[in-house]
Structures are given as C-alpha cells and as structure tokens.
Amino acid sequence: MPGNSGDDVDEDLAPRSGKVGDFLEGQGQYGLHAGWRILMVRYPADESFIDAGLTIPDGYASAIAGGMFTNKSGGPIQAPPVSGLCLLDSQGGVHAPAAAVLDSHPGFRDGEVFDEETIAGHVFYLIPKELDVQGIQWQSGGDVLTWLQ
User: What is 16-148's CATH number?
Assistant: First the structure.
C-alpha cells in the first residue's frame, strides 16, 4: 500500500508483552478474546509443594504463577485456557504446567466463564534446578502474551 512502511503490520503481529502485574489481552482459538493478568511468580516454591504432601523429582524445583483470567469473547466459554500458560526459563526453554493440587494455592476453577467474568487461580511448574525463571507466556492458538519478571 503506498505510503505504508509496514510498521503498522509489524506492530499488529508482534507478541504482546509486559511485566508481572500488567493486564494483557489477546486472541486465542475459536474466537476466544482473553484478558490475563499474571500477579505473581514464585520460584522456588518447593515448601508449598512439600507442605501439600507432594514430592519434587530430584534435580527439579517448583514454581507457582498466580493470575487472573477475564473472558472478553462476547459470550460464555467452557473453561479458562490455562494449558496455554507456560513458564519461560533463563535459557529460553518453555515449560508446560504440571498437574498439581495445592490447597494453599487453588488452581483455576473448571466450568463456564461468562462474558466479562474474571476468575483467579494458580498454575504449577517443575523446572531443572540449574535454571532460573524469566517469566510466563500464554498462547492458545493465536496471540502470544508474555510477562517478564
């Protein structure tokens, strides 16, 4: 297009990012419009896992991310897409959530989330002890949202 340097297109395609505590919005699969705020990242979080009676594999450390999800899709969705929340390590690795239940840090609830409803919860991770946590990233088949510490 004449007079268009392409900067607008690049800005639209660039991943959205901020710091822990920032509210970011993005598009996911099937028309999902999501708003996320990552409130905290705790690493290591081994004490919380051990207090819950969970075992951490040798050579690994645990992390907990707490956040809020807002459904901005214009209608209800069946469950928050927390499987897309991954931990970014200091070497550029991406780690999927670990299956864990900690009463002290409740996970995101299952079930319908209505339009403009906000729910809170926690997601759990295991990463090799020699790595550090750089941040959290969300992607659900659309935009990439990244929160750095």
Answer: 2.60.40.1240
